[in-house]
Amino acid sequence: MRYILPFLLLATPAGAADLASGDAIRSALVGNTVTGSMSASGAYAEFYAPDGSLHAADYTGKWAVRGDKMCFAYGQDPENCWSVVIDGAHVVWMSEAGEEGHGSIKPGNPGGW
Question: Sign of dihedral through CA atoms 29, 33, 39, 40?
Fold first, then answer.
């Protein structure tokens, strides 16, 4: 008689141990494009240039790694910083409240911005 045991897969939220260091953030994201979605603002696609500028299809901004967070400034808006979970080509943007968005890393600047 064969018994098949059911397996329960639980999604676990990213924990502090999963957060990327500043060096890991730079290594994975600088010079590359991330496409994804943020809970508050929806879909995005941004190229993070090595000079600290970011480029998208219809806007620009600035990025910086501060400690172990990636920070963004768009126009006159105040800078926002996020902890980052990086798993291969997948990125999760984290705040104190939890996951705020996600994306996929694409090499270089395929959008040509």
Answer: positive
pTM over cut 0.70:
yes
Domains of the chain: 18-106 (2.40.128)
Return the pLDDT at 17.
Answer: 58
Within a 13 Å sphere around the CA of 82, how many CA atoms are in the beta-carbon half?
17
Structure tokens at 47: 């190229």
Q: Report the Cα 39 to chain-centroid distance in Å.
A: 12
Question: Which amino acid belongs to residue 25?
Answer: I
Strands 69-73 and 98-106, sheet pairing: unpaired
The CA distance from 59 to 72, in Å, is: 13
Tokens 């395929």, residue located: 110
**Locus of tokens 């397996």:** 7
Asked if 48 contacts 31 with a C-beta cutoff of 8 angstroms, the reply is yes
3-class SS at 41? coil
pLDDT the model gives residue 7? 36
Q: Which pLDDT score, from 0 to 100, does residue 16 have?
A: 52
